[in-house]
Every structure is written in C-alpha cells, then in structure tokens.
Write a structure and sequence with these properties.
Elements (H helix, E strand, L loop, with lengths): L7 E4 L3 H13 L7 E4 L3 H11 L2 E3 L2 H7 L2 E4 L3 H11 L8 E4 L6 H6 L7 E5 L9 E7 L5 H13 L1 E5 L5 H9 L1 H18 L4 H21 L4 H6 L7 H11 L2 H24 L1
Parallel strand pairs: 1-2, 1-4, 2-3, 4-5, 5-6, 7-8
Antiparallel strand pairs: 6-7
Helix pairs in contact: 7-12, 8-9
The structure holds 1,4-dihydronicotinamide adenine dinucleotide and (2S)-3,4-dihydro-2H-pyrrole-2-carboxylic acid.
(2S)-3,4-dihydro-2H-pyrrole-2-carboxylic acid binds next to α7.
C-alpha cells in the first residue's frame, strides 16, 4: 500500500483542502492520526480538528518537517510565499503535491532549492464525498513511487488519471470547474420542476438523483451517452419534445464553450503568473 505508515500533511484547509482531508479520512485509507493540517486561519483548524479528529498546526514549517507527503492546497497567489517558508526543509524522500490551479511544475521546482519530487494535481470538490475527478502530472524528479502516492490519495477520494502537464488546463476547464456547471444544471432542472408544480424539495431531490443516476449509467454500462439517451426517447413521446428545446437553445454548444472558456482562462492565468 503506497500510503501505509506515511504521514500526509495538508497546507491550506479551505474549500478544496478541507474537502480532501474529509474525503481521505472518511475513505478509511488514511487514519486521522496520519493526517496533519496547517492553515493561517485558526477557526478552520479548530473545525477540522473537531470534525475529522486530525492533528492541526499553525506552522507550515513544522508540517513540512514531519509529513512524508506535503499537499499544497493554498490559493495560487499564496504558493510562492509558502514555498519560500518550507522549500529548504523539503527532502527527496518526501513528495510535494500541489493542487494549485495554473501553478506549473517548473514554477514549483524552481522555487525549491534542492531536487524534490513534485506532483501537480487538478482535483475537484466532490472529493469530499468520495466522488472526485482528478488528473495528475509528474515533475522532473518524481518517479513511480510518487505517482503511486498521488494515485493512492486521489483514487481514495474518487477517480484519478495521469496526464501530461499540458493537459491540466483542459482538465481544469472540464472537471476542476465542472461541479459548478452541474450545480447550475441541477438548479435549473429543479426550477423547471417547480415551474411545472412540483414542491421545491421534491424537485431538487429528483433533479440531483437524475444527474447522479445518469452519470452512474455512463460510468458502469459501457455504452456511449448517445445510446443511453436513445433508450430514454420514446418515438413521438415526452423526451423528444424536451430534447428539441435543448438543441434549439444550444445547450450542447454552451457546455462545449464553457469548457473551452475555462480552459483558456486557466492557460491565461497560468502563463501570466506561473511560468
Ligand atoms: N475550489 C475548487 O473547486 C478547487 C480548487 N483548487 C485549488 O485549490 C487551492 C485552494 O483553493 P480553495 O480551497 O478553493 O481556496 P480557499 O480560500 O477555500 O482555501 C485556501 C486556504 O488556505 C489558507 N491559507 C492562506 N494562506 C496560507 C498560508 N500562508 N499557509 C497556510 N494556509 C494558508 C486559507 O486560510 C484557506 O483556508 C487553490 O490553489 C485552487 O486553485 C483546485 C481544484 C478545485
Ligand atoms: O475557479 C477556479 O479558478 C478554481 C480552479 C478549478 C475550480 N476552481
């Protein structure tokens, strides 16, 4: 087991870091005693300590000295100052994993004085409930051991795939930002149900379960989404009427464009600041 006996230190216990910590602890693959979290916000640390029973610290340096895997989950603009604090303390036996959007492997490596294995990951917030979608790329000093560590962490909280670093902007545009697109779809489906007379709570539960069920069908049935769609469409029936409206309104093109816009924005942010 790539994680057994290892200490995982998470720097930044916010929306994404907190989701990862909670997902890892509830996966059962990382005992709370093997998890350390540091953050500048004491109230976040108190909450994580109470809810997850993990150890917390305010000093990133102590965490970097103690952890075997250091997971950087601060905002991209804070990464440099954290590396200036902890960079010289990191050792080749450790793995530094960064989830900061747009922060390149070469930027991370250049700001650590000695050669340390670095892995860059783009996860998403459903890691909180064990249904994350993550992709990772290896830095120049990272080898199979580091890939196995990253794969073990991110597959404990969902699905994880290895990609070339150049593809991480596209991953950000699709699955990194994607939960927000899907929440918008769920909200709109529920609004449609309410408009047609359903109580709000019933409409929301049906909308969310429909998205969950359809996603699980795609992931388990080995059939193309178009084939699964065709199985729902009765000739001359209700679904064909609904689908025509979605096609007329350009929903398919809107989703393609959303992934494109987020990918381009990810590239733009990354090039401007982190290359
Ligand atoms: N929110 C999301 O859906 C996703 C976020 N990410 C990446 O995750 C990283 C964190 O994003 P969020 O969790 O959304 O932000 P957030 O603002 O919720 O969390 C950042 C945390 O870092 C803490 N922090 C700030 N300065 C610090 C320092 N010097 N030392 C230790 N902790 C410090 C903050 O107090 C906060 O708790 C970002 O780099 C983002 O690009 C990646 C994928 C998805
Ligand atoms: O919106 C953002 O920039 C970050 C990256 C992926 C999800 N949230």
């Amino acid at each position: 087991m790539p994680l057994s006996g290892l200490k995982i230190g998470l720097i930044g216990g916010g929306a994404m870091g907190g989701a990862l910590a909670a997902g890892l602890v509830s996966s059962g693959r990382v005992p709370p005693a093997a998890m350390l979290v540091s953050d500048v916000a004491p109230e976040r640390l108190r909450r994580l300590e109470q809810e997850l029973k993990v150890r917390t610290l305010q000093d990133n340096r102590l965490l970097a000295q103690e952890a075997d895997i250091v997971l950087l989950a601060v905002k991209p603009d804070v990464v440099l100052s954290v590396l200036q604090q902890i960079g010289s303390l990191l050792r080749p036996s450790q793995t530094l994993i960064s989830i900061a959007a747009g922060v390149t492997l070469s930027f991370l490596e250049q700001n650590i004085p000695q050669p340390v294995p670095v892995v860059r990951v783009m996860p998403n917030t459903p890691c909180l409930v064990g249904e994350g979608a993550s992709a990772y790329a290896l830095g120049r000093n990272a080898g199979p051991r580091d890939a196995a560590r990253a794969a073990a962490i991110f597959s404990a909280v969902g699905r994880a795939v290895q990609v070339r670093e150049e593809l991480l902007d596209s991953v950000t545009g699709l699955s990194g930002s994607g939960p927000a697109y899907v929440y918008l779809l769920i909200e709109a489906l529920a609004d449609g149900g309410v408009r047609m007379g359903l109580p709000r709570d019933v409409a929301l539960a049906l909308a969310a379960q429909t998205v969950l069920g359809a996603a699980r069908m795609v992931l388990t049935q080995g059939a193309h989404p178009a084939e699964l769609k065709d199985r729902v469409v009765t000739p001359g029936g209700t679904t064909a009427a609904g689908l025509l409206v979605l096609e007329e309104q350009g929903v398919r093109a809107a989703l393609i464009r959303a992934v494109e816009a987020a990918t381009l924005r990810s590239r733009e942010l990354s090039r401007a600041k982190f290359t």
